[in-house]
Amino acid sequence: MAKVAIFASGSGSNFENIVQRADKGELNNIEITALYTDHHDAYCIERAKKLKVAVHINEPKDFASKAEYERRLIQLLELDEVEWIILAGYMRLIGPDLLDAYEGKILNIHPSLLPKYKGKDAIGQAFNSGDNITGSTVHYVDSGMDTGEIIEQRQCEIKEDDTKEDLEDRVKHLEYELYPSVVAKIIK
Ligand code: GRF
């Protein structure tokens, strides 16, 4: 039974979805040890409380450096014997210490068909692009911004009369299927 930590910075709907899928036994009996967040007021904390998932709140501003912040995370992860990290809307690049500690064991989901539209507001970038297809990508994490090896992608339409919110909604719903399905294939 693999122990897994989920990192999120914001709403946490992918976090909640993965916890629910795990609870239903769809994810090879992985154990989600805790939510890790870098914002004390992130909505994902509320979700974690409702789901009865432990929360570690660590804000980089409270540490002397990013390396110190990440060393604290590594300490906590190792205490819980975490083997895999799932990023779900975690809005920071992973630094060298954490990458070394969890080489090849960090997954991320990004709301575009990478390598298109890396970085912030990928859905806005796709919405404004004139493309009629976008989607989401699950990939391994490396030191770059959304540059790690792609594991799986799913597509959806960008409709002519879509608002950006319509598109966000469509991509999110695709992610709620894509991310658990990749987690079930990779983390055993
Ligand atoms: C998702 O769209 C994911 O692709 C991106 O951040 C968003 C997080 O959404 N990395 P939520 O916090 O899970 O609702």
Automatic annotation (TrEMBL):
<keyword id="KW-0658">Purine biosynthesis</keyword>
<comment type="function">
    <text>Catalyzes the transfer of a formyl group from 10-formyltetrahydrofolate to 5-phospho-ribosyl-glycinamide (GAR), producing 5-phospho-ribosyl-N-formylglycinamide (FGAR) and tetrahydrofolate.</text>
</comment>
<feature type="binding site">
    <location>
        <position position="66"/>
    </location>
    <ligand>
        <name>(6R)-10-formyltetrahydrofolate</name>
    </ligand>
</feature>
<feature type="active site" description="Proton donor">
    <location>
        <position position="110"/>
    </location>
</feature>
<dbReference type="Pfam" id="PF00551">
    <property type="entry name" value="Formyl_trans_N"/>
</dbReference>
<dbReference type="InterPro" id="IPR004607">
    <property type="entry name" value="GART"/>
</dbReference>
<feature type="binding site">
    <location>
        <begin position="91"/>
        <end position="94"/>
    </location>
    <ligand>
        <name>(6R)-10-formyltetrahydrofolate</name>
    </ligand>
</feature>
<feature type="site" description="Raises pKa of active site His">
    <location>
        <position position="146"/>
    </location>
</feature>
<feature type="binding site">
    <location>
        <position position="108"/>
    </location>
    <ligand>
        <name>(6R)-10-formyltetrahydrofolate</name>
    </ligand>
</feature>
<dbReference type="InterPro" id="IPR036477">
    <property type="entry name" value="Formyl_transf_N_sf"/>
</dbReference>
<dbReference type="InterPro" id="IPR002376">
    <property type="entry name" value="Formyl_transf_N"/>
</dbReference>
<feature type="binding site">
    <location>
        <begin position="12"/>
        <end position="14"/>
    </location>
    <ligand>
        <name>N(1)-(5-phospho-beta-D-ribosyl)glycinamide</name>
    </ligand>
</feature>
<feature type="domain" description="Formyl transferase N-terminal">
    <location>
        <begin position="3"/>
        <end position="183"/>
    </location>
</feature>
<keyword id="KW-0808">Transferase</keyword>
<comment type="similarity">
    <text>Belongs to the GART family.</text>
</comment>
<comment type="pathway">
    <text>Purine metabolism; IMP biosynthesis via de novo pathway; N(2)-formyl-N(1)-(5-phospho-D-ribosyl)glycinamide from N(1)-(5-phospho-D-ribosyl)glycinamide (10-formyl THF route): step 1/1.</text>
</comment>
<protein>
    <recommendedName>
        <fullName>Phosphoribosylglycinamide formyltransferase</fullName>
        <ecNumber>2.1.2.2</ecNumber>
    </recommendedName>
</protein>
